[in-house]
Each structure stands twice: as C-alpha cells, then as structure tokens.
Amino acid sequence: MLNRQGRPTAAGSAEAAETAGTFTGNRALIQEEALSFEIGRYDTTGVDLDEPEDFAPRLGALAREGEIGIPGLSEPETMRHFVKLSQKNYGIDTGLFPLGSCTMKHNARLNEKMARLPGFSDVHPLQPVSTVPGALALMNELSHYLVTLTGMTTVALSPKAGAHGELCGMMAIKAAIVAKGEDETRDVVLVPESAHGTNPATAALLGFKVREVPAAEDGTVRVEAVRELLGPEVAAIMLTNPNTCGLFEPQIVEIAQALHEVGAYFYCDGANFNAIVGKARPGDLGVDAMHINLHKTFSTPHGGGGPGSGPVVLSERLAAFAPVPFVTAGADGSLTLVEHEGDAPDGSPFGRITAFHGQMGMYVRALSYMLSHGADGMKQASEDAVLNANYIRAGLVDLMSLPFPDHPSMHEVLFDDEWLKDTGVSTLDFAKAMIDEGYHPMTMYFPLVVHGAMLIEPTESESKASLDLFVAALRDLAMAAKAGETARFSGAPYHAPRRRLDETRAARQPILRWTPPQPVREAAE
Predict the structure, then answer these.
(1) What is the pTM assigned to this prediction?
(2) What are the contacts of 290-294 at 24+ separation with CB within 8 A?
(3) To 10 degrees, what angle do helices 464-482 and 427-436 make?
(4) pLDDT in tens, the chain (525 residues)
(5) 63 in Cβ contact with 12 (< 8 Å)
(6) The Glycine dehydrogenase C-terminal domain covers which part of the protein (predicted)?
(7) Measured between alpha carbons, how far is 393 from 246 in angstroms, rounded to an integer?
C-alpha cells in the first residue's frame, strides 16, 4: 500500500484506510464514470421527438434496417456524464501546463467575448460577400498586424493549423521554383535534425528529398554545416527559430544569406514566434516564409472547437504566389475578397489550400489579443515568457542537468536525463509522478537530439507564485529520485482517475469500437 506521497505504508494503518476502495468506486469528489454505452438505455432520450408522418424513403438499398445502436440518457444524466468526464481532464484553466514547444498559455476571456459577438460568431462562408464587410475589415486589420510584426510583405490567412501553414509556405516556395523553371533540378530541402517532425514530412509530401543538417554540440545550427550541404539542387531550408531546444539561432542571418546566394529559399518554422514578438522580425533575419500558430503566439485556444489557424507570412520573393482566397484593399480603402486565381490583381497564386478562407473565431481572438496588448504589451509578453523559462531554469539547475548550459533559454528550458543516471528513475517515471502532484507532465523525449529530454515552457501568463510552487514540486520530486525513493515513481500516477497505461500498446493497437463484454458463464456444479 502507498501513502498520499506514493510511499509504502503498513496495511491497517490510518493512511491505509484513507486509500482503501469504496463500494461505488468513487473517492469523494473524484467520481467514476462509465461509458455512455454501458450506462445508457436504448429506450431513453433527453429529447422528445414526435413520430414522423408517413413518408417514402429515397435511400433504397442503403436504408438502415436495424437499430442505430446509440444508447440514450435523460437530460440530467447527460449533463452529469459529460461534467464527470470533463473533471478527468487537465487544461490551462486547471493549472500550469508546462508542455514545451506547445505554448499552453491563458486564453483571455475578453477574446472569447469578442469572438461571440453577432456578425463574427454566426458568419457563414457561403453567405454573400456584400453582407460581411466587417469580417473583411477584421481580416485586413489582422493581416496588417501580422505583416508588421514579422517584417514580411504579405500573409495567407487561410491555413487551418501550424502544419497546414507549413505546407502552405512550402507550396509557395515550390510554386516560385516552378515559375523559374527550376523544378526539375531543385528537389532537395535541408532540415535540421532538431526540427519538428512535420518539417521533413511536409517536404516529402511535396516531392522533395530531405537532407538532414546536423546540430552543433551547443544545440544550434552552424552556417558552416549548411554551406557543406548547399548546391544547385537545394530548394530551401526549414529551420525553427527559436529552435526546439529553446535556443535562439545565433547564425540565422548568415544561414539565410548562404541560401539566397545559391538561389534557395528560407522557410522558418514559426511555432516559437511567441518568444520574439516585438523583439526581432523574421523578415529582417532573411526569412522568406513562416507560419504563425495563432494559438501559441496570440492566445487563441488550441483548435477552438473547430479548425485552428496557422497564417503564413511571405517575403517579397514569394508574395506573388500566396494562395486564394485573400483580401485586397483598393486605393479608396475598399476591400475585396479574391476567391479565384484568375481574379488576382497581380501575381500567380499557387492555388487554394482550403475550401474557405479560414476560422473567423481564431481571427477575432488573435486581433483582440493584439489590440488589447498593443505593441508594448506584446513585446512584454515575449520578455515575460523568456523570463519565466529562465526563472524555472535557475530554480532547478542545481538538481537537474542542462544539455546546453552555455546558452540562455528562450521561452522554454530543456533538461536531459543525465541527472537521473543510476537512480532507477526514468524521464517517463518522473513525468508520471508529476501527475500525482497535480501537474500535466512537460514534453518528454523531444527534441530527439537530447537523451531523455524534458522540455518545459511556462509561458508569460504564469505568475511568480505559480512558478515558485511548480519549481518547489519538481525540486521535491528530484530530491526523492536522488534519495532512492523509486516506489514514488515506478507505479505513478497513484492518485489519478486511472493508473499508468501501456501507451505504446494503446497507440499501436487502438480499440476504437466498444463491444459488450461477454457474459461470465457460471461453473458447472
């Protein structure tokens, strides 16, 4: 038996009674909840439906003959079911969410209120453009801010997420290469070994060959390593800055110059733009294309209940190839939504990357964030994100090891597992023990260039008090690991609604359909 700290305790003690099971399986406010298939009934529904009048079905052989097989719950049961399920989840409204390279920051409620205003919340992509001048004005204003903050020429708002924006940027690069008649020769994309996994996948999807750029011992990419790989066959590089080790690339300008000298393009993965907003403009660094995760940088929720948003800013070299649809402003200030390639006033759009323009709710939230912060506020947000990451670094560096100690951290701090050597505790064990302390684990085992990586990003929205508690909790865990208290870690989490799962098996052999359990046959007497 284990006590609340995850340490063994004698059976029959007061602490054993505290952790004993209950008849219902509930533990006070931590309540069990079965699947709706298990508790639902096929003769119950929370909505009264009238019997349909006679009609002639038009489905022919496709008409359903059996029951639909979805159980029903009454309205109170439905409410309780989903509330109980929601209480088993961890979100940014629950506590500090330290996922590295994901930027789980607070979503300001002002932004949510603005996104729910009539005219924004109910706008439909198929309604006449003449009825949505306010939406066009908002997209134009958002585009202005994104171009200004990045120092680029234009922006494509339509991509639905970071990886989608990444695809958009690389499609613009490919279109530029085709326009120059070099598509038969420029077929190689350089990708640093510390890159996000979507980078090589995107390049391969578009038919490029991927060539890996090794990282230096300090976790950065050196211009010398890039120059060794350059040639007339290189189309672009896909570099993240700040990179996934939480470090600013010190030679990014030299790398961009080297690429441009051989006619190649610089795609920057903008996942970590929230670390440099107001401090450095990617366009000034030589970047040709960069996606921006609105949820990471400008506090829109991850997904937002639907498609997310990953706008792509383009330099003058690529602006002509921006995809449709996009908003243009006339000399008199009038706004036009260009929906077809042939209607583009200038340039040669590479086509369309999505059916409609994008997720209006994300645009509203992002612009609300920008207007409420102002230029100085967005700059301070970046500074606070970097400050908070280095504050955590300073609070843990004497107990946990840094793979790249010679560089200050940017918005996230990266630890490795060297400090866990000979403790019998792994990175996974440590992360699972964090759940018992009420925290979502940090990003584990990424980036791959660091063994046993633990990547922590506190974001700028955490207070000093919450950071102090987080650091104290991790220090307590670290000291317990070094003291040999392996029982606290080996089976963690002990206090979560579910114990440790076989996540590898769940990913490789997912069970996606519920089937009724087989009845237990009684033994013959």
Answers:
(1) 0.89
(2) 290/150, 290/152, 290/169, 291/159, 291/162, 291/165, 291/166, 291/168, 291/169, 292/146, 292/150, 292/165, 293/103, 293/161, 293/162, 293/165, 294/362, 294/365, 294/366
(3) 130
(4) 444 444 444 445 555 555 567 888 888 888 889 999 899 988 878 788 888 899 888 999 998 888 888 889 988 999 999 999 988 888 889 999 999 988 999 999 999 999 999 989 999 988 999 999 999 999 999 999 999 999 999 999 999 988 999 999 999 999 999 999 998 999 999 999 988 889 999 999 999 999 999 999 999 999 999 999 999 999 999 999 999 999 999 999 999 999 999 999 999 999 999 999 999 999 999 999 999 999 999 988 886 556 689 999 999 999 999 999 999 998 898 999 999 998 888 779 999 999 888 789 999 999 999 999 999 999 999 999 999 999 999 999 999 999 999 999 999 999 999 999 999 999 999 999 999 999 999 999 999 899 999 999 999 999 999 999 999 999 999 999 999 999 999 999 999 888 898 888 999 999 988 888 887 776 665
(5) no
(6) 381-480
(7) 12
Give the chain's radius of gyration (CA, Å).
Answer: 27
467: number of Cβ within 10 Å: 18
Q: Residue 68: how many CB atoms within 10 A of its CB? A: 7
Q: Scanning the structure block, which residue is given the tokens 């000093």?
A: 464
| Interhelix angle 162-179/198-205, nearest 10 degrees | 40
The Cα 275–Cα 242 span in angstroms is 7
- Cα–Cα distances in angstroms (integers) from residue 125 to residues 128, 224, 338, 340, 452, in the given order: 8, 48, 14, 15, 46
DSSP string covering 322-383: PPBSEEEE-TTS-EEEE-SGGG-SSS----BSSSSS--HHHHHHHHHHHHHHHHHHHHHHHH
Q: Are 275 and 327 in contact (CB under 8 A)?
A: no
Q: How far apart are CA 295 and CA 134, in angstroms?
A: 22
Question: CA 369 to CA 365: how far, in whole Å?
Answer: 6
Question: Which residue is listed with tokens 């489905």?
Answer: 59
Residues 6+ apart with CB under 8 A from 424: 484, 486, 490
3 state SS for 222-288: CHHHHHCCCCCCEEEEEEECCCCCCCCCCCHHHHHHHHHHCCCEEEEEHHHHHHCCCCCCHHHHCCC
Instruction: Tell how strand 265-269 and strand 289-291 pair up.
Output: parallel
Sorted by where each starts, the structural domains of the chain and their CATH numbers stand as: 110-368 (3.40.640.10), 375-503 (3.90.1150.10)
For tokens 């903050």, the residue is 149
- Which of 294, 288, 322 has the alpha carbon at shortest distance from 189? 288
Diameter of the chain by CA atoms? 93
